[in-house]
């Protein structure tokens, strides 16, 4: 069998194997769980092992800092090392359990951190597309290995495309105008694919411009043109069923699956291990002629190419990765790497000189001070070094004291106090004891936005809700796909509260048997409780802090609560209980350090104003405490820098579903306000001086390169880390440009007095933007400010570079179609799909919505227009789209087209109308009369009579 011959070219081997398969066998290979084919010696294969920052869901494995924390190291070499270690552990698990542990890993996530309220913020790297691409490429390279022939693992980029909200994620559309698409969203995916680091991509749940992402023409039109290799594209879990389900884009599942296959989806992640529904739907699509065997063959070829590159069909001894065994899992080298990654990820946000500590006694306080949390995609911790443990290990048992800082309460109902079983395994929570004995005490963890978790003092286990609604104290922590351990205490007046269980949206009642159950549909039917304070956590923590030299307050989020997959945040505020704890401790001891350990930014304005020192890290994995202690005590310099903006409050953010960062001034690229902490921010324990910024040339052609050099000197008395950052800004342009844009960085470690010269290569082509007038990138003739500094807003030196590029000419609508999506500005409109696999259109989202085109050259004059239009609502049928000149509201009317009624989503009609007054260079506006009126493109006819 030729496909078994490793000396044959890969395409020939794949073609040989595909040719030996029956149609039924090939269809079977399109599901996540691919059945064995014994007659050809093919074993089973499964896509998808989660490996975001360690191997997840398979048992104890090395847990590294969350992805956003890895990125804050600004150290791609380190990120690649982490990726390599994770890849080794995947191979180790696969060695002992090959059928359960897939070598196709679903990592990294390269979705941009456009909005810090996104529930999955910790999974991404940065709000900047270029930096995300750098880190995604580094991690992918580590996962794939460096063998010239074999993949260590097959990295899969998640999630294509425009995915940055959990709220209604399966039914909301991420609206991406062309510039946002090409300048912001696509580059982060392109870099790892073009570098050959990532070999697969996962499509996202959302729609993009009104079209399900799983049907995006960009899968074939962009993703696959970035590589000559077969790029496998997998669906997200149950997402293919949404096409004819929640999204209602196709009438039934065979049609939806067929559309996904034609669009470029190769592997369907549906129904867990049961491949039968997928096979049945694709078979029905074949029988109905919606797809043919060539569509199946194309997808199967991509799936099998990945398996070949993993070495499945070659002699075992030929592939060096087959020698990796389970001994590598959580080995000493990986533990040390986890510590180093956690250390470099810590960001010093503020320091008035209190840090590094030189003290003998610290009080370590807070709900995160003596715990390390796992998130949904982290591995199972083999061990955990907490902040408190890390400091005890450095200072000794008498050098650090601990207090959790949470309130302990009792809940009294008319039938008695709620109490919990004191056995470790827990049991039903009842409300029938007459006194508030210790088994009736509950610790309250405030995770923000009114959400709390209750831990029973009786056995130290959290209270959760069983499938039958019974409250039981048997949970280690809040967790799971559905978190059943969170409640709200809803005020009912007269000092009473009721317990609202979030997961079931039910209220808690005490039954006739006194057992508490979440079974009431509304608060009126719930059992009322009086909350009695047993222990004031903030008061007691403050008393402990008063006797210490320094207080270290560790706060943040629980990764399974308020901001996680399926759940966005509504606010950036610290949980109220944590903020109150911080203020109480600071009042008792002004030498208070705030340590935020979280999956995302918080608005910690009060702390920044009042505290001498503030640090942040993501959830740092198993070595977090050792890393934190080394930074706090000055064994290591804080090397982390922020990869997203920290805002003063959520009021500074646009709507979560507004993806047009250009129009709404979002991210550090366009944000015009003053952030709490800017992109790129992070302090050192020493000082650095920048000098002698020089350009190799002050002018460059559009295809040229210029070297930018700067000298950096450590002017302090300690060895320290500095991240030298290069930004540019185009001073004048036909379009709105970023206020600043990262173009390069270099991480340095310098001894006192040491100087280094940092040189960047700046390609003029990288200064291009997407020109909507021509549908491609353009480098304008312009001057650019070259900025070098410590962060996006802490610029030390600037210079000017002149670029000899192009001057963008006016549009000539009589020479070709004017696509609605390529507008220069809009209000009250949204991008929509034209045809299933084609271009995008624009529809009105509200009455009087409009789009505009600047500098349209009508020449001697246009006499008529033909508009491709449709109606997406009843109100739109018969509505007018008015063509105005110079102004969308008051400009002279050049013409009017009427939108006819439509029978389906893609029922388009070309409507003609006369045009008057459109001559010379004018701004053109299309004003929509009613929501749902949609325009794809316009074509204009030149006034022949005016020619000469």
Automatic annotation (TrEMBL):
Keyword Signal included in the entry's annotation: yes
Pfam families (UniProt xref): CBM_6, Fn3-like, Glyco_hydro_3, Glyco_hydro_3_C
Alphabetical list of SMART domains matching this protein: CBD_IV, Fn3_like
Signal peptide, first to last residue: none
InterPro entries xrefs: Actin-crosslinking (IPR008999), BXL (IPR044993), CBM6 (IPR005084), Cellulose-bd_IV (IPR006584), Fn3-like (IPR026891), Galactose-bd-like_sf (IPR008979), GH (IPR017853), Glyco_hydro_3_C (IPR002772)
Keyword Hydrolase: yes
Domain CBM6: 816-941
Highest taxon, organism lineage: Bacteria
PROSITE patterns: CBM6
Keywords: Hydrolase, Signal
Family named by the database record: Belongs to the glycosyl hydrolase 3 family.
Protein name: Beta-glucosidase
Species per Swiss-Prot/TrEMBL record: Phytohabitans aurantiacus
